């Protein structure tokens, strides 16, 4: 699983500081180059504009009361696979999107497994 993540550039969009740091640490330990964590839609879009070769992303659905749909749309335009993360119910995800969903609180192994599946596709 880590071999699919190692050497890849992953965007982390998460507004909870401790969770963002945890994702950064775990993904870095797996050998990924981590962009972020971005706590706002604006920051995530800035990182995407400045970055080259983003391979995948983990995207919190709700960033301080602001939905991350603009980031999801930009990732789709770029052809970058992503996974949504949410502590909310099924209604939190736009029904037109086909991205996988991680329910918070999630297991870090589940995050790594989901990202590895995205990268292998």
Automatic annotation (TrEMBL):
Signal peptide: none annotated. The modification 4-aspartylphosphate is found at residue 60. GO terms for biological process: phosphorelay signal transduction system. SMART domains: REC. Keywords: Phosphoprotein. Coiled coil: none annotated. Pfam families: Response_reg (PF00072). Residues 9-119 form the Response regulatory domain. This is Response regulator.
